[in-house]
UniProtKB/TrEMBL annotation:
Residues 112-143 form a coiled coil. It comes from Durusdinium trenchii. PPR repeats lie at residues 206-240, 241-275, 316-350, 351-385, 386-420, 457-491. NCBIfam families: PPR. Residues 76-110 are annotated as: Disordered. This is Pentatricopeptide repeat-containing protein.
Amino acid sequence: MADENSASTSYLCDPRCWRSECERKAQCYFQCSSRDCPGPPGSSGKNRRIVLCDRCAHEGACPFCSASIQREDLQSVTDKPAAATSTGSADGERGQCFNRPAASSGTDHQTLEQCNQRLEGLANRVQERVRELKREQMELAISAFDHPEIAKLVEEGKKLYQSLTCKGLQPDGVTYQWMMSLCARAKDQKEVEKWANEMEESGNSSRDAYNSAMFAFAVPGGVDRADMWFKRMNQKGIKPDVKSYTILIQACAVCGNSTRADFYFEQMRSAKLKPDGVTFGLLIGACAKDKSNPARSLQKAEELWKNMKKARVKPHNVTFMQMLNVYADAGNMRRATHFFEESAKAGFKPDVVAFTTMISLFSKTGNVQGAEEWFDKMKAADVIPSVAAFNSMLRVCGTAGDVQSARKWLAKLTAARFKPTWDTYEALIIGELNRKDFTQADWWLHCMLLDSEVIPTLTTLKLLLQACEPSGNLPQAKLWFNKMEKAGVKPDVHACNSMLRTSAVHDSSIWSIWQQIRGGPSKEQLKWFLEMQRLDVYPNEETYHILTNSRNSRSISPAAIFIAALQVCRFC
């Protein structure tokens, strides 16, 4: 995915610090991980290990091949002096940083730089913790800034900023960039905009800072706000870069708006900016999220893949994964398998996510044997299965209604020392619902609600309620509805509509049948419509369609219609 993390390139050492011939106390060693990197002159590509100062080490790109510097590529050597590559100036001049903001003294300037570095470290820690929380509990990351650990890190960043201003130091564009990045990664959009407005008032606006502001809105429903900050950056006379457009495309991709993603892509090309593998990956990801026409989305994604290869853009792992997701969403097992194998030959190293995606393909057909074969392939490739991989296997078993296999994979999950998640329980519930065993489904729901480490979701509630619709099992639907509400799950309009549909089938009194013949709501439906008001759930178009077309919700026999008509005539 696109990342807003990059320092302002206007503050790099010039001459570059890696050109220095003198021995000095270096900040970082850096060795480029790219196999195609030529390395510094004289290295012959064999030893690409060089010395960078702290500023240039965090620039974000290799000075020899422009590949992205990953954090694992850097190794601190502050405990010993190190000699830089012998390719520098004749007088052995140390690398000096030009175009930095003015400061009252060298000591103060160093303090400002150290403050920015500490803010960057806090932002990275927040990002890592949010990812961990998302893996552990998917819905928690949505309101990450409410989490105690995340809130503490953000508060530490604010105190650091206050200490900076107390010393009389003027925050620069990098300071605001990392303050916004810190809040953006904590999912606190209000704080991001607060810092963005303060940045503009200070006159220290930078492109990377605006990228951080846009990155905060690369979430579902945030594309308009991201576009607003993009336009404000242009109004300030700051030209967007590839990352700016990539973040906008990411905002479109998360909500499946492939049309708008194409619009920003065309703008990028008009600006004569070359998209990278991540950009193409997000464009393909927008196709994967677009559920309106899977066949068209697949065709469009394949065209993007061909254009990327034609432009000689090296695919990123994100690109491979997004393309695999398109095949998975289209349910095209044959082409997904072919793409997986060809990508592996092209150098893509499949990870646990890639194998899990392949396993999930079988959840639509319930092919347990096929899913187990891919699970074995993952183990043969020395890839350690994750809890998501086991949950995907359970989901396949649930779709097939194969409860014996599901329990076997549940035992394997616990044997691998994983704890069940909401997805685990949901897969087990699906298996029982497909067998019409509501008693056993209720037992698994009970286990989920007793598990203190699992938060029940609205998705599970809707699955349970939808299972009651065909038979009109209103008592069971009420039981599950009340259980989930007590567990803290707030029903939405779709859950309430499900109750209305179940009520229409359940209510078989003479007057209710007569009301359904006339096209009106049944007695139970009226009760649940009033219940929606108590729950502060607003009806939608589907709600009124159900209420006014209840006779279409069930098949009323001609005999029932005749008897209902006679009964009504008796009372007239």
